[in-house]
Amino acid sequence: MKKKQSFLSLLAFSLLVLSCKPPQGTSGDTANFKPEFNPKPSPAYLSPQESMKTIHVPAGYKLELVASEPMIKEPVAIAWDGNGRLYVAEMLTYMQDANASGERQPISRITRLEDTNNDGKMDKSSVFIDKLLLPRMIQCVNDELLVNETNTINIHSYRDTDGDGKADQKKLVYQNDKYDVNGANMEHQRSGLDWNLDNWMYLTYDPIRFRYTNGTMQIDTITSGSGGQWGVTHDDYGRIYYSRAGGEIPASGFQINPVYGGLEFPDQYSAKFQEVWPIIATPDVQGGFPRLRPDVTLNHFTASCGQSIYRGDRLPADLRGDYIVCEPVARIIRRAKVINNNGKTTLENAYDRQEFISSSDMNFRPVNTATGPDGNLYIVDMHRGIIQQGNWTKPGSFLRQRIDSLGLDKNVGHGRIYRLVHNSTARTKAPKPQLLNQSSSELLTYLDHPNGWWRDNAQKQIIVKQDKSVVTALKSIISGGPIGKFKTPSHLARIHALWTLEGLEAVDKEILITALKDEHPQVRRTAVWISEPYLKQNNAQMLAEVAKLQNDPNYDVRVQLLLSLYESKAPAAKAITKQILDQNTNIEMLVATQDALVKNENTKNYGSKLANLPAADRSLILQGAATFKSLCASCHGADGKGLAVAGSSMAAPPLKDSKRLAFLEKNTAIRIVMHGLSGPVDGKTYASVMPSMSANSDEWIAGVVSYIRHEFGGPPPRNYGGVQPGMAPPSASKANGFTIRPTVSAAVTPEEVKKIRTAHASRTKTWTLAELEAKSKDELTIQTTTGSSKQ
């Protein structure tokens, strides 16, 4: 283990650094910008105007203040309705001190902001909904706002029926009271609710997606899980992007749609990409010294969140399609170029050893970004001292020492929303939307708007209205006919027209065949995607048509063929798939896509692996599987092998074949999940600390432990307790207050968890391996003499 430098020595070194002048950006900026490095930043509160002076953006760009305290406080997410009114989710009880006091009080809110004179600044506000528990997901649908709060998966719709800016109608649109929410940690819960191009809404953590139909939410299962933590977004072609702060992963899930399975490449971005370049000393980091350079700057993504793809029309064209992700611990916003290489997507920092946006204000906490109706990029700054949840700020922790010494807990109740503009368009006003008041025929014209916000919302509005009077016009757009007074529609208009037809349930084979012959590959890919219902039904005509694309010059089209044909049982579908794979053995993306599909299918059939287990054990393991995929996989990886991208270090140790998951180490696994684990693991030090999950129920912990033991642990010892595989286990026995269950099942019971909880009721700190090994040695001696045969 490397010897740790003291914090004071690091700080002293940082004082020698007078300035940091990184090289010029490489993405078409008109001039170089050279932000100075601040080695000794002050935690003092800065007004919006003062703070903006500390925020550095590329030459030609500038920030404008859209809203700030007292109009808004603690903002975390934003959404515009079709008329351009901005809804802001505000977590008013989030970390109001280092102990998270009062965090679960239902006093948070959603505020509605309006820019009445269209000058870019909000001048009218109202509390649209109050008395909420930390609202985390919002989505505008027609004149409704869909809202999800912390500690529940239920979704409600809110409406303002009398026009006073306050919701007066509340309706439950999705209910699942039986869902086991991880109420112990509000960071390890869902976010997103992004309405994607394919008319499904995607979210993080939960292995599901939603579709809004006739005022309710339909649900679809994502077998291999959705992944992600804070935020989800999509590009012009419906590619989904997640990020995983818990796993220190700034981008994930963007190779294929998660409904088909999970696919990540170790080199989808480089180790260099994961380095961050603050212009401020960064002492307040969870993970401590391993996360700091000698100049006390954060060296690696640790809190990526709030990502978006810039899809607007008011900033320079070279920004369009770039990936934007926030890093509030570093006080920076990353801009990445999205590169397609034979269907495989990779990301590269747009700048060399510097960031798109960076600040030396210690309270600058960017947590979300979005393209606005005006075509500019909007930034949500939670603007506060503490950005980590209470599980990581406990007394005695590295982070708590920094919070207390700097007084970061004093900076609460603030918040800013900025918009990034460019000198070339800053002086002109963009039209203000009125989509909620327009007819479907008028909405059609926006399907070819240069700003993706308008295209998305026009499509969504037509679908929500279910107005099929425009079906003929939509088909005309796909065939290349004009849109209103406009010229021949762009390929993006044709794509949106296809998905609008899909949302209206008005797609037919004829229009799909037309689109399969389109000159633009993304239109062809879209047509293959939407053809899936026909392909699953083994429709001979559609199979014959998509077969013509098996040698398509565009690899995105070939990848989509593999994805869309996988569930078809027709010999023709298998033949197309085989030919694509046989002729492209050297194309990494195609081979990996097929592997991901096979793994996803195996996951669907997971139940067969549990068929011979007792029903209670099987139920616990399946319950734990859902929790693991939505929560634990963010750090440990879906396959239990840990998450390391581009050669970076893992945030958490691998679980696969871990000594702590050996069959006889049942109590060790329970203790780790219940109280957490710190210190080196098998000789390696990890940046993240396994937090305590003791606030969850005994059944919740039993499910998680049962799953990880079953999936990643070792087999039972030969003739354990006289039981061979396939034999019925004998009754359980007792030893030292613990239940000894000599069965071939890896499951543990809630009762066993309860005994561990009772035995360590006074424990408040995490375990170390030395402590666990001592406990295990004593207990295994008992088990091998009373419950099983010695080896």
Automatic annotation (TrEMBL):
Q: Describe the location of the Cytochrome c domain by residue ranges.
A: 619-712
Task: Give one GO term, molecular function aspect.
Answer: electron transfer activity
UniProt organism field: Adhaeribacter aerolatus
- The protein here is known as Cytochrome c domain-containing protein
Q: Which residues form a coiled coil?
A: none
InterPro entries reported for this sequence: 6-blade_b-propeller_TolB-like, ARM-like, ARM-type_fold, Cyt_c-like_dom, Cyt_c-like_dom_sf, DUF7133, Quinoprot_gluc/sorb_DH_b-prop
Q: PANTHER family this protein is in?
A: LARGE, MULTIFUNCTIONAL SECRETED PROTEIN, LARGE, MULTIFUNCTIONAL SECRETED PROTEIN-RELATED
Please name one Pfam family that this protein belongs to.
Answer: DUF7133
Signal sequence region: 1-25
User: PROSITE patterns from the entry?
Assistant: CYTC, PROKAR_LIPOPROTEIN
Sorted UniProt keywords = Heme, Iron, Metal-binding, Signal
Q: What is the lineage of its organism?
A: Bacteria, Pseudomonadati, Bacteroidota, Cytophagia, Cytophagales
Q: Record's superkingdom? A: Bacteria
